[in-house]
Amino acid sequence: MARKSSASIPMFIAAQTSPIPLRLPGFGIELNRARTWRATPAEGFVTNRRKKLEDDGLFPSLLALQTSEGDGATRRLAPIREFTMLQIMNTITDKPGWEKKIFSPDITKKWREEVMAHRDMDVSERMMDWVINELQARSKDFEASGNVLAYDAGVVKSDTAIPEPLRNALKSVAARLENVPDDEKDYHPHSDNQVLDLVHPSLFPVVFGRTRIITDGVLGIHEGIARAGSGEILKIPPKEDLAAIATSHYRSGGLRVPYSQKFQWLPCDVVFTTDSTVTDQHDKDKNRNSCKITSYINNLHPREHQELYEVIEQVISLAIPLWNRTLGAAVSEPYVRIEYEDSSDKELDHDFIAANPKPEMEPGEEEYEYEDRVAEWEEHSQKYILPEPRAEFVPPYEDIRVDLQEQYRSTGLQVIVKLANIHLTPEKPRYNGGTWHVEGQLNEHICATALYYYDSENITESRLAFRQLGGYDDAADIAYEQDEHGWLPLVFGCENGSPPLQEIGDVVCKEGRLLTFPNILQHRVSPFQLQDPSKPGHRKILALFLVDPNIRIISSANVPCQRRDWWAEQVPWESITGRLPPELSNEIVSHIDDFPISMEDAKELRLELMEERKAVVMEQDEAMESYTVSLCEH
């Protein structure tokens, strides 16, 4: 599977004659002013220009919470029952042929009975009516696209987007990264040798004050290695460029420094390569999102792994329709199934009354004491009426249309690539799961993620869970009585004075599934373990992090290769050192200081980056906790 050459993508594109200079966040643009710039094509490369009034805003990100880029980071505060409906629909759409079966009265009756039989699930007949109606409405779109919206905020799944031959090709070519001596395997730090990094963006990232950047053009896919060591050193951004630029509704205790002063993950550049000679409409639809990677993937050698590059290009191309849907949902008004406007709707709690009869006045009891006891009993003898879906079904309306190929064809995309395996053994049979987080720091401007689960063996069901930050002011619009807040946890799952963090559900991470979601949702890998504890097992993923295409960031098209081992391979050592034995040449390379960066040094920098991002995750949690539901007393 040789990589196709392209005369339209030269090795190096000079930029000296362009009237528009190269400006990128961290290079000519203050990190915290990136929102005021927009990606724009120059002569042979992509840079940024000042934002115009008619330009769209950046896609929302939870990392931008409490900054002037943070609009849309919170979601509608939705009733728990609505999340239950989504979880039921997500389970049904995992069933093969659901798009046909949903129209069978016998099958839907069986599904209804199975759901209603769950004692730990709060489901009503009206909820199930709506679920069936909505899935019938969504079936036609699923038949056409092969993907379905699992959760409203933009969680999209497909088990057919990546064809089986491509999955097998990925397994085959990625195996070359796995089949190396044990001492060369790169297990992720602090993972107890369970997470094997094949390609990871935290290794050899942009390091401000050390990384070099090319200013006279952009690097082609192989030129990045040939020009290793050239360019000027990126300056360390001043601290004033890191602080969040607050919105008018900024609250204290938030994520005040969402940018890193030292690190940035390094994306590769991607262009659209639609073949204009294709005339068949079906082939046009398949071809229109075709992509080509035009700069090296960080930590994936373009010559040694050219077949893997081609496979990743195809996966990116096939992920674009799902990303379109994810981003469209993320910026659209939410589809409301259940409305809750008045908390005064109550009914008698017959179970409570049966177990606790109305109190009678005791001998010698003061009347006011008795009245207090009766009032307390009456309060507990009533329960809030949980909201139901609207009486008349309203089909889902179309989200705002996002078409990455159409809207960003002139500037292309930037994608951060990760390949990682989780390996379990009889000695270490369980993976304990992850923590709630969103991807990257604001330096990367990640707007969406695609996860492709291309190989799983001998593991129990693995799931990825999601949670959102609900609108902290939404509850204030609901009618409620003085000092009565008991409806909040029952209806919405949050307390007065606490952050409205809502767990919306999870998705099964089955082999062959492509999953996309926006960076406005936190996600967490749930624990899983070996199916057969006597044998090893694994789960392998390809992760693609999409940089917001409205902004251009520093990429491998700007940064020559930083890896000393790659640089050493293309140095003409014989002409420099004569015919020295390889071990002596290696000894000479080991004494080169500072740049290019050695693997040992890169791993130390990775630990530093991980510690910084761990602190950011903790600070982000604190920022979200400052967004609390606050019901004023009447």
TrEMBL record:
It holds the Pfam family DUF4246_N. This is Chromatin structure-remodeling complex protein RSC7. It comes from the Eukaryota. It comes from Blastomyces parvus. PANTHER family: FE2OG DIOXYGENASE DOMAIN-CONTAINING PROTEIN (PTHR33119:SF1), IFI3P (PTHR33119). Residues 24-114, 125-569 form the DUF4246 domain.
